[in-house]
Amino acid sequence: MSTDNTIFWKRFHAAPVVGIARGYATDTVLRIGEAYAAAGLTTLEITINSPDPTASIARLREQQPTLNVGAGTVCTEADLDRALDAGAMFIVTPVLAEAVISRCVAAGVPVFPGAYTPTEIYRAWTLGAPAVKVFPAGQLGVQYLKDVLGPLNEVKLLPTGGVDLGNIQSFLAAGAVGVGMGSSLLDKALIAAGDFRGLEAHFSSVRAKSAYTLVG
């Protein structure tokens, strides 16, 4: 059965950043989520290879109802089952996991599959993915995004890996529908120090950059 994702997409487009929380225990994820929501960011991915990711997804959805909470690093249908059972609102894969993509599309669950080459990107798009995660984007650069969108101008791209405060606006100006951010967004030093107020300020800086729109 298809799902109405109007609220999901409204939140996503208001702050088109997918934060990637990898390797954090549930209590830390909840603190991150609190700062994330307070800063006005909206879409947060918990990787399935984190400690107790299902608990993190379920509890974060409960405690931060204004967030899009999803699961990342989903490579298999077993991973997908765990994520959906926990209440994941969207799915991110690091690779072209066709069975995962097809099931998400059939169920109406937003899925951002990982792809690298134009052929992989186009395959993910034709399978029905609403946007394709270009990974690792930092190795490819902004020009690669522009080059791909020349012939594949209808495809929605979500560059991930190597995106930071210094280049987020360039990726968006190049035509990205949003960006994925991991370590450059979830500052490990601030988190390790328990400085969640500082983390919120950092999130706010990213939120301001993500509001950039190309004029003209």
TrEMBL record:
Q: Name one Pfam family in it.
A: Aldolase
Q: Which SUPFAM superfamilies match?
A: Aldolase
Keyword terms of this UniProt record: Carbohydrate metabolism, Lyase
Record the organism.
Answer: Neolewinella marina
UniProt lists the family membership as follows: Belongs to the KHG/KDPG aldolase family.
Q: Which residue ranges run through the membrane? A: none
Q: What pathway or pathways are given for this protein in its record?
A: Carbohydrate acid metabolism
Which molecular-function annotations from GO does this UniProt entry contain?
lyase activity
Subunit text: Homotrimer.
In its UniProt entry, what is this protein called? Answer: 2-dehydro-3-deoxyphosphogluconate aldolase
